[in-house]
Amino acid sequence: MNKATLASALGSPSAFGQSQFAFMRGNAFEARVKADGGAELLRLVHERLDPGAVPPQGAAVPDLTAVGPEGRAARTALALREATEAGAWTLLDHPLLALDVAGSPAFLEPDAVVVHPDGSWTVVEIKSFPMLDGSADAAKVGAAARQAAVYVLALEQVANRLGADRLGADRVVAEPQGRAQISNVRHRILLVCPKDFSNLPAASAVDVRKQRSVTRRQLDRLTRIEDIADSLPDGTCFAPDLPAADLTAAVESVPATYAPECLATCELAFHCRARSRADGAVTSLGRSLRAELGGLTTVDDVLAAARGTTGDPTDPAVAALRRAAELRAEALGSRSPGHDRSLDHKGTPCP
Amino acid sequence: MTPASPSPFDPGAEAARATGAILRDTLHGAHRGVVVDSPPGAGKSTLVVRAALELAEAGRPLMVIAQTNAQVDDLVLRLAEKNPELPVGRLHSSDTDPYDKALDDLPNVRKSAKAADLSGLDVVISTAAKWAHVKGVEPWRHAIVDEAYQMRSDALLAVAGLFERALFVGDPGQLDPFSIVGSEQWAGLSYDPSASAVTTLLAHNPELPQHRLPVSWRLPASAGPLVSDAFYPYTPFRSGTGHADRRLAFAVPSDGSSPDRVIDEAAETGWGLLELPARHTPRTDPEAVRALAQVVRRLLDRGGAATSERSPDPAPLTADRIAVGTAHRDQAASVRAALAELGAGGVTVDTANRLQGREYDVTVVLHPLSGRPDATAFHLETGRLCVLASRHRHACIVVCRAGVTDLLDDHPSTEPVQLGVTVKFPDGWEANHAVLSHLSEHRVSWRP
Amino acid sequence: MSLITTLARLEAVDTGRAQPLATVRHRHLSERPLVFVPLTTAGEAGAPLGALVGTDRDAPRLLVVPQPRDRDLRFTFLAELADVVLPYVDAYGDAVEAAERSETDPETGKRVKVEVELCADAPQLIVPSRAGIDFVRLLGRSMRFRRTAEQDPETPHPAPPRVPLLGRWLTHFGERARVPGSALLLALTDVLSRHWATGQSSLEDQHLGALLAWIAPPEGEPGAEAALRAELQRDAKGQLLCPPAGPATDPAFDNKLLAPAIERYDRARTALGAAEDGLEADDRLGELTAAEQHIRDLVESRTRPTWDAVWRGLDLLRGLPEGAHAADRWTRDRWSFTGHRDGVLAGEPPQPRRDDAVTAANKLATREREQARLEAQEALDDPLVMAGRRLAGEAFAGEVTDVVMAYSESKRPSPRPLVTIRTDDRPHLGERAKVYRSLGGKPQSAEFVEYVEREDGDGDGDGDGDRVRGRGEDGGADAGTDADEAAAGLSVVLRIVDKMGRGKEPEPGSVPEKGDQICFTLFEHEQRGGAKLPDPEETPWTHGGPPTESTEAAEATGATGRTGAAAAALPEPDPVTEEDLL
Questions:
Q1: Which parts of C372-417 are beta strand (E)?
Q2: I need a labelling partner for A106 at 20 to 30 A (CA). Which of A119, A152, B196, C245 fits?
Q3: Residue A182 domain-assigned (yes or no)
Q4: Which of B163, B190, B285 is the best substitution to test chain C (most C C-beta atoms within 10 A)?
Q5: C-beta of residue B369 within 8 angstroms of C-beta of residue B408
Q6: B31 touches chain C (CB under 8 A)
């Protein structure tokens, strides 16, 4: 399901889309990082994550092409096993991993996975935002870490299927809650970005244990996705070629909680925002707004409570709202002439 | 600690061994610093007092740096209690009422706002903020930095020139220091001024010996494993007492009401969850506040008696042995008002920040996420929940609206990640889940 | 978000237009600000595409990089930018006034007053949005370590003269913008949304077009609709009618208009290079000029609406009278500007890539102090801001109902009058809590004594209600919003402790009188300076000791190893590769 296409079909096109400049630059950077059989990439993995291992001198880069996602995932699993048994630096370029999500497989394609001589595996994420003086946009690094955590989980499933014991990995990784687990999948991933203003690669290890445990919990919870599916009307299907009204009905039967943060991450956000605003939901103005409003969830309810027309005055939320309204009115009563409206109606902000 | 040790765990011996090693490193070690992690109730203050006395006895004058005036006064009182002869200086600010009046009764404690007036005393104690103003003095050979995990790196920078070597003691699981303005610009730097003092110290001096007090003498056997697993996943500790060592009993039997049932559950198992129906509420949720006040009222009315390893006779559960903990000040104020109405004014009611370092027999906690429509970073902060869940010697009762698990699942942590910053464990989101899942086994549903 | 702000937002939804969040303007605006509307190239860090810049709203200077991946063209752009920005900045460096500053005398160690220059006014940069501030910082970082041919004849790609200097100034503006309440570099969306609440989220307020649509919607059109048009409406070619305020461009613009135009430019340049004779070259130069002009037109078409919007936003802000303390904070900006001017004149090196431990701690301390100062000053300047503090229990206002003269218990008794104030507010007052009011612009302190519950709801002012409420928090100073209590209201008894002169009797006007309307705050009005930190060369062992030449690189944990060029007087320039031409 392509959410951007769906959004356009719903009449709320998103502002998403990628500039071809960014796209070209990203591809050029990734190609550069992986050039020469991944020599630079492996050097960075060695330097940042495994300086004790033998330095990589030319690496195996197995061919992972196969027919269909199942075929590619099987090919990847085979390559992982062979590389692990070989005990040599190996670069898997765009492997395909199968992750079990609520009983059905989802296929994931990390930028790269590196197999270390000790048989451990590292997820590599190549991003085109810069690492400037050693630091990078924290929101983007966070997103990369969450993405990589999913790959780590998928790799752990692969390792389990292959039998971690057979992989010769003897790394015992301490886990919270006293669980010790044998895993050859490293929880520190390698993030590779352009250095400063150049397109030389800079790399940093990122610990994704937190993201991994959050994702793991969410995936466990997704077993309940059938419950959501069961509650949907029969025949619900999100296909953009349906008439808009049908589509809208189909999309609206799925519970969604819109908040402004969605605008940055979801192609359907403009559609959800329109619904949320039409419902008068206060959360369309920001999640934090709700914190002090208690059970009041719509703009009309809040304003009516603040104006004293509805609401139980012993409810602290209502009482606080009335006090806030009083104080606001009092302060604006002494309002200076600066807010007079003479500046209004002077042209439109945009043509 | 080797978990596979064949002999049974002897908490007293383990703790003594740890303390011995710490004092050895402090008094005779080659390193300039020693770091001690102390989980809740593991005897941090006892250690600080003992280290101070031994240093003083060895003829090495020392300065002690604490974070708040209350902590400073408390340390002075404890030192004087252990050794009334010891000359102690209390360096204080020039504000009005700068120190606890109880210090005036101690003949060997000299108080001054000027460091020069206190020179030559065996031990001089003050807050980090006051020490930062002391200039142009000969450095002390020794310092003890108390609550070092709650001290900011920039505060240590301001005072570290005053001493040659130091013992840093603190609880890594409690609330982190914070800054009222953004400091992302320095994230990942070893000396990020908004990080904790210990983080900076260890980044620059990774070779320093690090010790851990392995036994909590406060937390009962029912709470040790949960608090250790949820908040100290990579540095576990044990409870110093067994299940049989502590007992909480009530003379008045249960009247079958929800407060009484949750009290009995908590007396029996150490934990109780009084769950109100799911509802979004403002912070000062009147129903939750009322329920909480009723629990406290019943705790007082039912003639509670706490038996522990401290004494063979049961000690009555009086108002001063009970505390109520909240996340926000306005919640604490509402609870105080509700308690005053029920005539239960003597019970301590405070926020997590102010309950740090304190200890009670029974705590009643308003869950930070109860009734909230959203889970913010503030409410998810591990330290806040850790403080609230680790103040009790016998039982902890949590009052909460249903639905917090779903709330957590709807707000997975999507925090930004700063390169080069060591990941801090546990994650608030996970710790909250762990605590809730444990509490759900001790649930009593609220029926008015 | 305070409930008062929340209400304002909801009222904005209800009325279809933005609602005031302030009654005065809380930032100083220069008579002659320099507006800077930059665009950047997608996917590249610090590769400008173009900009409108200038101080004349009717005549912005258009600067364009027709091929953003060409380093020489980028340098040309930056040199042109320096030609606009630096003369503007320098003009303020010339007019100075005498001022005093306390410094530590290096010989005696005592604090002494020294006479120094303070620039009489300072430059002010305005960018459309917060992303613009980040871009100013990025430009500053990308330029300040460049070398000119004069500095280093060997440098492979010498930067035009003055470009490194522009980098230092932009870095200074960018750092200053992190100080709360500063105004050397302002993002217009931030300033506008400080003063108006719209019916959308603060995230959406960062879209300048949408924000202005709420504040000044076209006649008859609700703000929500105008904002939606500003966000999403596109023309027949699929281009946004209200282009993003930048520096990022709309992908549809990049792909449909800009990319073909740059291709045409590249072709024309290649063709010109391949020209075989003068006549052919003339022809092809014409095509190149036309191709370049096309890109210039495109960049102008994306920046001009934002340029005009910025000036409209400034008009709206100028409609508000300046808050009383804004000038005080602007003076701090002038000090900051003067300090950097002096540093440049004294030949100091550019700002390092990373702050050392002491600098970082000093900056954090300054910003925390300025944040507290800003919060206090905004509340004192603006009853609407104070209303928020009152609602939060951090201030209270009311009528003085009783004044009883009392004296301190000392050999020379000083006046300590007890003042009773009737208030509907619910201050969170602890035992003997300090409170402050503004008396002739200076804070007067008082001490909380007790609450007195009024028996009668209307409070006829005899101030003699039953003294049933306790002292301080332990007695139940609840902030509860119980309706009965709210109706009855409270009286607060305070003891005034200072600013009454030296005599036994308080100076006239220094003690509130019965019937006065009065407002006390629980927060201090003025900020104390913190303790002085050690000098960087005395950084203690806990923080890695004094910084060395190589520390800077070593501290940046993520950076790949940089070989310390200790010999160079200047910090090492950024590595340059052929590939960053792509």
A1: 395-404
A2: A119
A3: yes
A4: B190
A5: yes
A6: no
